[in-house]
Amino acid sequence: MDYQRKKKLTFSTIGLIFLFSGVEYAVILPTIWRYLQTLEAAPYFLGLAMSAFSLSGLLSGPLFGYWSDRTQTTKKIILLCNLFEIIGNFMYFMGYSKWLLLSSRLLAGIGTGAGSSIFGFLTRSTTSEDRTTVFAAVMACRQAGLLVGPALNIFLRLCDFHIGPFIVNKYTAPGLFMFLLWILLQLAVVFMYWDLPPMERRISNPHEEENVPGPSEEEVEEEVMPLMTSQELVGSYGSVTTSSMCKGHRSAEPNDSPVESPVTLPTHELPTPFRISITCQEFLREEVIVLLAAQFITLFNQTALETMVTPLTQKYFNFKELENSVMYCLGGVVVIVGFLLVHWLSRHFTERVVLAIGLTICNVSCIWCLIFLANPLGSFSWQLTEFIIGVFLQTLGLPFVAVAQVSLFSKVTSESTQGFSQGVRRSVGGLATILGPLWGGGLTENMYIMVGAMMALLILLTIMLAFSYKRLVEPTVEHVESSQPSTSGLST
User: Domain Major facilitator superfamily (MFS) profile, which positions (predicted)?
Assistant: First the structure.
């Protein structure tokens, strides 16, 4: 099978992974509270179940990302994570007790850790020009799952039968349904997913795809020179020069021995202390901090808004399950339209422009909510219009910020440690999805405080982006050569 066909099948499988993760969230979230009530769980157990899923994903993401960086493979990691999803959803289907249900969400959350490895894989197997488009498509797949999930619940709520000792009803059916879906996905990964070689390796040896004899190993090694060097032993972008060690070794050799060129080691081959040093330095850079802040603040505001919306619609519009389901479906449509718009804009503008546009929309949305939704006035139709506009602006701005910050993050962090870096990014997002609902759920009666804090966070992020705007750009060869010392200078 040729490379392009493998790439197409692999990317399609990745799309299915994110699609199913969105479906799982959408089919379980609407019924989990009543499911817990049938198991005589206290109200706080809903928060525990939701937080357990996010917490295990927060912890597993960096670990699986580090594993993928070390091995430069992702297929085994995805297969392992799918096993956690399969076991977790089957436990959710069993539902003997509230503790078993809590454990099921904890196990299923571990499976979400595969996302960090997948984003690292996408970074290594795409060019910087195509990366935003690929990330937008992958993230749109999850939103499509969130859109399809509520529709599936219409059919799942009709289930009422037994499978041996297990009861299949509207509460346990989502677990059984996702159990079967993840098994199908496991088969898809086995037969349709390949660990594609990194883009850098394929560029350095283009003859590999055409089965044409390429250049020798020595010539390939000369071409794949490190992108950046540093005055220290460890390079900023994932390489370490060992010229000083080579120099010490050469001093013991005869004078007429040939001079060796500096050796460059990929980051994943370095000893653990060097890798830790690289990672710590990387996350302290200004542009990385700004992008992690964008990840946290946007997800915090989104989840706080999602938590606030349902009580708000019940209080002012008397919405019930059907109306809320329609509202979430329409919101999903807006988000998918936003991803399509980002897909088009990314071909004409840089990621930092897309990020600035999204942040502007989010600021306008938050100002609108602070003015009109914190204390709605006027007739029913006017209040409903105010609410629709606020939610529309909030959901429209999310794809811009989400895609742009993921793509930029992959470019300002080392490519050889993308798995771990993306794991850290997703863990920051996981922390936001834990704290956001706690903040939004606790202040539904104090809207000015809740939305005011969200507005303050957005203003802080806007200021941070304004001061680091010029730094949010992928390092180019010209920039590197003009700003960094040469390799030969390091060996003196």
Answer: 10-470
